[in-house]
């Protein structure tokens, strides 16, 4: 079952996560993919592209092919990125029958909640990466960097407005998952409604990421991703020989 954010709440999604907010982060992915490739890359596959907010920036540099498990989210992406190819599919199993110069796996990889899930997604990425090309895996966090916390999200477009509390917590530190609870207040016209949406996400040590990504054939290193306000974390650049 899809979380509400990717089904019933899709019409509100751009208020939650505006495309413009991705620009600095996406620039770091572009630089890493160019540096990691042994040739000038021209094509990019994004697994778990969602509403296409990364591609909104990347399509200026690459010919982008976008996949996601949610048809509703891809409908948003088609509106934003009509020049890009779109395919519905699960990153663990989708096969497009061709390779791409570069592959991006952004925060949708957080829904890989077991090592088997993560391995399947890594195999998909590797099989779609052209020899000499590169992939970026960009999870929100690894086990060493996870911290419980709360963020406030707000957005409005003149006729609608939302406020959202995002609460990250770990119900069982002994397992490989954590929970993200979203409490939405949605205002449209004079009406306000409240919704709760729970997301279960994977949480793996950095060593597990290295082991799995290397096991499918990549050479792996990390690079800095900007988080805003002068903060950075580390995500994964993967080269295919």
Could you write a compact summary of the structure shown?
The chain has 2 domains: 167 residues, Rossmann fold (3-Layer(aba) Sandwich); 54 residues, S-adenosyl-L-methionine-dependent methyltransferases (N-terminal domain of TfIIb, Single Sheet), CATH 2.20.25. The chain contains 6 helices and 11 strands. Helix 5 packs across helix 6.
User: How much helicity do the residues have?
Assistant: 10-25%
Residue share in β-strands: 35-45%
Q: Tell me the CATH topology of the largest domain.
A: Rossmann fold
As a whole number of angstroms, the C-alpha radius of gyration is 18 Å
Number of E strands: 11
How far apart are the termini?
A: 37 Å
Reading the helices and strands in chain order gives HHEHEHEEHEEEEEHEE
Structural class: alpha/beta
Q: How are the strands of the biggest sheet laid out side by side?
A: 3-2-1-4-5-11-10
Q: CATH H level of the largest domain: which superfamily? A: Vaccinia Virus protein VP39
Average predicted confidence as pLDDT: 98
Reading off the top of the CATH hierarchy, the class of the largest domain is best stated as Alpha Beta
Any idea what the CATH architecture of the largest domain is? Answer: 3-Layer(aba) Sandwich
Largest sheet: 7 strands, mixed
**Shape summary:** globular
How many individual helices?
6
The figure for the number of domains is: 2
Descriptive terms for the model:
single chain, 241 residues, alpha/beta, N-terminal domain of TfIIb, 7-stranded mixed beta sheet, 4-stranded antiparallel beta sheet, 11 strands
